[in-house]
Structures are given as structure tokens and as C-alpha cells.
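Input set for joint prediction.
Command: fold jointly, output C-alpha cells.
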Amino acid sequence: MLQEHAKIVDFISTAEGVTGRKKLQKMIYILKKIGVPFQEKYEFHIYGPYSEELTARIEELCDMGFIHEQKEDKSSYVQYRYTVTDEGLEFRNALGKPVLENAEHAAKLNGKSARFLELAATLLFFDELAPAEQIAKLHSVKGKLNFTQDEINEAYAFIEELRN
Amino acid sequence: MDYAKQKLAEEKVFKDPVHRYIHVRDQVIWDLINAREFQRLRRIKQLGTSYLVFHGAEHSRFNHSLGVYEIVRRIMDDIFHSRPDWDESERLVVLCAALLHDLGHGPFSHSFEKVFDVDHENFTREILQGDTEVNRILQKVAPDFPKKVAEVIGKTYANKQVVSLISSQIDADRMDYLQRDAYYTGVSYGHFDMERILRVMRPVDDQVVIKSSGMHAVEDYIMSRYQMYWQVYFHPVARSAEVILRKILQRAKYLSGHGYKFEQPPTHFLAFFDRTFTLKEYLALDEGVLMTYFQLWMDERDPILSDLCDRFVNRRLFQYVDFDPGKDYRKLGELAQLFHKAGIDPEYYLIDDSTSDLPYDFYRPGEEEERLPIHLLMPNGDIKELSRLSQIVDGISGKRRTDYKLYFPAELLIDGKKKEIKQQILELLREGGV
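C-alpha cells >
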């Protein structure tokens, strides 16, 4: 019961907070793709893989008082920062066991930019394709972002690092 | 003659209660409708368990798929035809994607997917690109055509206008299911002036926008989405049936994995229990097959499986109470222990359910969101986001509304057995929001 909620709280707590909705979406997706048992269902949207279930779950956690959402006005855009409250920590301790076998993954993901995570998540979304096709697809759906070959190589290396 | 351009000698029409008539002129579309994988959609209800609340809601994904096709056909042939920003060569791929967008849905797909950890979108892709009648028809158009259709449905097609028509915040899929579900459930919400919306849709750059003169029709559509979610899709009694359905599948899977000898072996499910399923096995399932098993399992020796099936088949659903997990999550643990003591397995008989189990995709205007908002085309050519101009939409867009329920078999708590423990359970359920 509420186990899926507890997993999200545990992840945000381990990451010591996450800034950006897009970033949070991609972090959970990447972890799910490397085998972390998140249950949220993802579909492809404007910024790559996106889960309506995750959005709803975060909203519920804010509503329950387990996660604090802070809206930061960055003049040209608005950004949201998520941190776990004291009640959230109690909830996590009471209901959940750690979702990440390797807690360092949270820090590694958090250290990357939203753009980079969007790239890595999009590559993972097309991971059933052959590498050349995967990259062609990336450029087709993310043409405007002009990802360089260096960035793509870095994303592949990062995914590999998380998997090992 | 080029198969892609081949027309039927005579137009075929399907009588439809929502769109009056569905018109088919393209040979490809006619052949797809007659393919076995598409005919299978007749045996899968559009609204899953909602028929247990709204008895008229027996309509299928077949009806809905034809409806989405018809809406897109009207947009293509009557509205976008010859418009400078629209690429006419995309017509057939859009029509096929509209018709086939739900092809991978399985029986009671919401629960089935949760229990067996499968995704109907993957099955849609497999049906389109695998060894199927649908694939053979699409291949006749062009070798890469099945892949193109799959990309449109998967929202990864390069032409974003095409994707928008099938899947966006104002798309043919939603426009059909809102009206169709309203019609078959008999509710008075869900209606909006679709003809007006279609007439003011315009392809501009890489999206489909709405002329600002159609704003009020769009407001109605947004309101209908909001009301249908809370009144129909997230109805607490339909959720109760969904919870029981999920638990039946979960119990059958558990029993199979623990060496239980079924009186009626779950032949059709075995490949899903051990995750060795193929597309063929998936396509062999429909709601008739599942309901037959549920009927037969009512006579199983396992009391939980038999009871849950009886509840689903004979509509003896769980009761529910509202609860606030923020305050009461510890009580859930207490309740689970008391259920154990009372001899009722909480794994199957005490279930929490929340909005995130069936998320409402309410209109989101932007601000770091992942969905393209609805854009209005102003008379001077400017593009403005809908909620900036509409106070009604601004009033309900992006606003949080959550709902948590706790489901349990009320009659088992008042059957006179283990009275004292059950009294404690009832008190906990009654007190403080639980």
C-alpha cells in the first residue's frame, strides 16, 4: 500500500532534492530503464519520455505533505524544486525500503543537466533500435536541440556507467 | 493501380450514433477494418468495468476506433485539404494511425497491464510491424509504411502536425471518446460542439491550432474532459470493480506460481504468469475469454479466487471510504494487522486506490510541462495559449485535485464472526477521515 509513493519519496530524499519537473521525469525513466522497479508508465512527449502517472503521484505527495514543491521564477520561465519534508521522511521510513540499490545513482543523475537527461532518456526510449537507427531517430524527434556526437557518446557512456 | 490510392467502387458507410455515418472510400481502410486484429477490438469494451455502474457503457474499442478515423477523415478531407501548411501526402498515414491507434489494447487493459507488467502501446507496435493481417495490408502500401503508422501512434513521427491530430491536448481520440462515452453512459456531460472545433482547426508550422473565434467551443471541450473524468472515468464504484478485477488476476498468478492445481487450468494465462508470452497469445485474449475464466473460477477450491470472481461476475463490489494518506498511512498498517487477525487477507481485501492509479490528463497550459498547450490563432496571425485568454480554462487548468479511497468487503465485517476484532476495524475505518 502506497509503496509506489514511498519509492518516489525515497528517491527524492536520496537525491537530496530535485530541481525541475522535466529533470525528475527523466531521472525516474532512466532508472526504470536500467531496472529500478518504478511502476510509472511512460509515453513519448515533447521532451521525450514522460509519465502522467508520475506527475499525478508527485502532486499527491505534495498534497499529503510528504514532498515540498517550491516554484522558482526564473524571469523567462518557471522552475519547480522538490524536497522531502520531515513527515515525508517518516513516511518513507515507515513504509518503504530503499528503492535504489546504488544510492550514488541519484547524485550522478542529479549532477546532469535537464538537456543531458532528456538526451539519455530519449536514447533509452529507442533502445530496441540498432545504434545508427537510434541516433537517426534521436535527430528526427529532437532536431531542434542539435545534439552533437560528443554529447551522444557521453550519454551512452553515462547509461553504461549506471548499468554497471 | 497504386494500392495506396485505390478507392472502393462504392463508398461504404457505417451507421454510428455519435457521428451519424462513418464514411470509407479508401481500399486500405476497408481492408484494415476487416483484418482479424481490428475485428478483435469488437470484443474489448472501451470503458472496461464502467458498465457495472453505467449499464449502457458496453461499447467497444471497435466503435471508438472507427469514430477517431471518421473525425480525422473529416479534418483531412473537409478542413485541411489544399491548405498551404498541410502536406497532403500524409493523408493515408494519418487515417491509418487514427483507425489503428488502440489496436494493442487487451481485455480490461488497465488492470491486465498492471498485473502482468505489459504495455498496450508495445503490442500496438508489434501488431503493426509483426506477422499479422494488419501488417500485410500496410506493407502493400509501402515496405516502410507499417513503421510510419507505428511512429505516428507512438508520437515519434517527424511531422508533429500529424501526431497532434491523433494525440495532443485537443485530438481526434479525445473528441471521439468524450462524446461516445457520454452517449453510452447516458450522462449529460461530455457534449461539446465538435463541428465548430473542426471548422476552426488550422495546420500552422509544426502544430495544429484553433482560430480564436472557436475559443468558446474549446472551453466546452475542456469542461467536458474535466466533468467526464470525475463523473465517469474515476467513478468510485467502477474503481471498486477495477480493484476486484486486479486482485483476481493477481490471485490467479500467485496460485499458479505456488503449485496450486486449478480445477479449470488457466491455459490462456500461463504465458503471462511466466512472462513467455508471444503476440499470438496476447491476441488470443479478449474480454469474453476472461469472463469465461471468471465464471469457471467461481467454483475453484481456493476461497479467495472463487470469492473475488463471484464478486466481479455478480457485482458484489467492495465498499469504500475516503481516507487521507497524509494523516492516516499508519492506520493502514494497523488495519492490515486487524484484517489478518479477523482471518481476512488484506492483500486481497484491503486496497487503497488514488488518482495516480488512473491519472486525469487535465489541461496543462505550459510552464515546464511536457505537453504542447492548445494554441489559439489570433486574427493578426499571433499565436496565444488558451488559458491566457479564457478565464474558464484558466480556472480549472493545472489545478490539483486528488482523491483517495480505501476499498474493503463491508459485509465480511458484519457477519458476526470474530466480532470484537471486526468492531475495532469498523471503528478505525470510521474514525478520523479513514
